[in-house]
Amino acid sequence: MPPRIVACWLVLAFAAPLFADQPAEILPPGRAAREVLPVSSQSCGSATCHGNPSPRPIRGSLAGHEFVRWSEFDPHAGAAVTILGKPFQDILDRMNVGRSPEEMPALRERCAACHNPEATAAKGSGDSLTALGIGCQSCHGDARHWIARHYERDVTREELHGLGMLDTKDLHVRAKQCAGCHIGDATHDMNHDMIAAGHPPLRFELSAYHDLIGKKHWPEAERLREPEFKVKLWAAGQAAAAENTLALLKSRASRAARHEPVSPWPEFAEYDCFACHQRLRPGGEPNPVPARAASQPGMPAWQAWNLSFAESLRKDSQMVQFRAAMEGPFRDNAAAVHALFPSEIPAVAPANLSLPDLLTLLSRDPAPAVPSWSSTTHRALALQAAYLASRDNTPAGESAASQAFARRLRAIKISLAFGSKQFEWPAFDWMGLPRPAAVPFSDLPAISAELTELASQLQAESAAPRADTPQPSQP
């Protein structure tokens, strides 16, 4: 038997008592791994498994080196440190005003569910100084039943899936795992009370957040192996955003309809922040950030961020009903909103979107007459995904036209960045862009028009035959 296999069996033999007393129930496929995390990520980090200082000599692979890359470069590895620092303590102090001492641990555990799930499951306390963070099982699934099999040569993805491993190569599965914390769901609710205490709003877009991990612990060659990968990733993120947004709304409406003690309604985290957070004093600079227009005058717009494109991709009447209910009168409508939901929220398969489809969507100018910051920024991020997919499909280096396009898109992203780092959310990868000296949101219609022009330009360039493409002979 090869030495590596012998070493893995020895690790498993010593580790077996640690989880031998765990229940034998196998999690249903696709169930969120955050619920049960009995096997520590440290068990994956030995040099014979995923903690080798150097990758195995397999071309284009990080095999054996994943744990090292994750622990050094992945921001999720440091998520637990966040809740041990002073900013978190300040947020917690504000949230605890008026609460009894008995309520405080529950609030801390609510934060740890996303920031430190492994310590929460292993020790029953997210406040543990063992800052395990968002580890292997948070994304790959409960490892109790597949840890002893996943390295076997002939085991199939389907078998591992049946044992509880999540197929993160499936972009929709990947998007759903990310959305569980970055958007929320029935068991993860970061609401307006926490935002008011200092937690940043959750403005998640999968393709952009993917780029925030500069050195990934998985092969980045997936972008080149999968045609139009960035567009597919963007579409999966939009579908997951819609699913989790509805799951979170259903949970909030249900709790409010039952008049549970800590269930505020209306839940202002559902609405466009800039509908209320504007300058009210006369004179001086105009309001810098236009909000999304609601369907009823005087009401804030519902879900200006998470459903920015999802409603266009879904094309169903359910979203219309939800928006009408959420943008109607606030008083006692929680039960009416909850009644709109079926018993189970249907899965939203990611749209089978191609690069031409996305460019058509962007070039036909879906922006309103007075675009909001949310809609304009989402269009810029979608165009960024389309541009990267177009560039990935081009075998040669960037042309002069492509470089000029990138510079124009870069200038748009500079104009959409906030002037103050404390005010900027989301913390997207603006690619090292310099911050403007002031908040420059006074001409969003012009920015939106330029995005439409750039989308049309990229659409024309993508449709044009490349110089290296054989042309059909004339009859």
Structure description:
This protein is mostly helical. Helices cover 45% and strands 0% of the residues. α18 packs antiparallel against α19 (400-416). The longest helix has 29 residues, at 229-257. The protein starts with a helix and ends in a 12-residue tail after the last helix. 36% of the residues are buried. The model is unreliable at 1-37, 124-129 and 468-475 (pLDDT under 50).
Features:
475 residues, mainly alpha, 20 helices, globular, disordered C terminus
Low-confidence stretches: 1-37, 124-129, 468-475
What letter string, H or E per element, gives the SSE order? HHHHHHHHHHHHHHHHHHHH
Ends distance: 64 Å
The rough form would be described as: globular
Major sheet = none
Question: For the residues shown, what is the average pLDDT?
Answer: 78
Report the radius of gyration as a whole number of Å: 24 Å
How many distinct helices?
A: 20
In helices, the fraction of residues equals 40-55%
Total strands: the figure is 0
SS content category: mainly alpha
**% residues in beta strands:** under 5%
What's the short version?
By secondary structure, the chain is mostly helical.
SSE topology:
Elements: H1 3-19, H2 66-73, H3 79-82, H4 86-95, H5 104-115, H6 117-123, H7 136-140, H8 157-162, H9 171-182, H10 192-197, H11 206-212, H12 222-225, H13 229-257, H14 310-314, H15 317-326, H16 334-339, H17 355-363, H18 373-392, H19 400-416, H20 444-463
Helix pairs in contact: 9-13, 13-18, 17-18, 17-20, 18-19, 18-20, 19-20
